Structures are given as C-alpha cells and as structure tokens.
Amino acid sequence: MPEDSDWEAYKVPPTRTPASERATSVPNPVAIFQTVFNYVVDAPVTFVREWIERQRAKNKFYYYHQKFRRVPDVSECLEDDYLCFFEAEAQWRRDRMVDQEIVEIIRERLGACKMREGPNEFQNCAKEMEQLAQVTKAYQERYGDLGVHGNARTCLMKQKHRMMEERKAQASASQ
C-alpha cells in the first residue's frame, strides 16, 4: 500500500485531552439524581436480588429429577372420595404415557439395530425383537381394547376380568 504523505488531510488527535473547567459552582442536577437513584432504588434491589440468588444457590432444584409420589389406585379409593378418583385417574394417565414412551423407545432401538445390521438383522437383533414383543404384549394386556377414551376404572375392570378368566382356566385345568 502506498504511504499517505498528506498529513494535513488526516490529522492525528492530540495526545492528551484537556480537562473541562467548570463554569459554575452549582452541582450538576443529573449527577445528584443518579446518586440518589443509586442509593434509594438500585442498591436495595440489587441487595435483595443477590440475597435471593445466594439462597437459591444453597438449595438447587432440578425439575428434571423431580419424583412424584404415587397416589392410591382406583381400587383403593373410598366410595365417595372424588378427589382420590381424580388423582388415581391422573396417575393412570401418567403411567399410560410412560408405558407408551417405553414401547416407542424399544421400537426405535429395534429400528436402529435393523438399520445398523442390514441383512443380518434377524440374527443380530433377536434380543431387541424379543424385548419389543414382551413390551408390546404387556402394553396390550394392560391398555389394549380400551380405546382413546379409556380411563383407570375401565382398565381396572379389564384387569379384573382377565384375572377371573385366568382363575377359571386354572380351576378347569386342575379338575
């Protein structure tokens, strides 16, 4: 690059900035307002916020590790205890969603194994296929034939009928 020889066009700034001299002895009202605001509003708010942050640092709460207590099943609720019915229904829905996710995760693992193994999927992914069959069978036994509007009470009745059929089959087999 060529050297710029025109020093007059681009003047170098002075090396020292002169201090401004006050023209009056009256204090600046903006500086007074800033100081008052700092001590009256900003300092207490900052103190409270820092105190709250120190308290939170002592008691860290990780929401993703939260464990909910198990509520009683529908079969354990009293006859007119509607709050217990509601809690049992909410617990049943959470359990159903968890079971659906378990089935989905096992299905994704099987799909990944099939993609990874290619033509050898039947011998190398046998464990995942067996696991998916077990999980799907358990899910179907518990939630199958309930439909979209299934609830905890109908699921309990379905399990009760299944148990009664199993007892009848055992009684007829032993005779």
Automatic annotation (TrEMBL):
**Family, as annotated:** Belongs to the complex I NDUFB10 subunit family.
What species is this protein from? Answer: Ardeotis kori
Chief location of this protein within or outside the cell: mitochondrion
Q: What does this protein do?
A: Accessory subunit that is involved in the functional assembly of the mitochondrial respiratory chain complex I. Complex I has an NADH dehydrogenase activity with ubiquinone as an immediate electron acceptor and mediates the transfer of electrons from NADH to the respiratory chain.
- Protein localization: Mitochondrion inner membrane
Region annotation Disordered: residue ranges?
1-23
Gene Ontology cellular-component terms for this entry are: mitochondrial inner membrane; respiratory chain complex I
Q: Which UniProt keywords apply?
A: Electron transport, Membrane, Mitochondrion, Mitochondrion inner membrane, Respiratory chain, Transport
Pfam families in the record: NDUFB10
Keyword Coiled coil found? no
Q: What is the name of this protein?
A: NADH dehydrogenase [ubiquinone] 1 beta subcomplex subunit 10
UniProt membrane topology term: Peripheral membrane protein
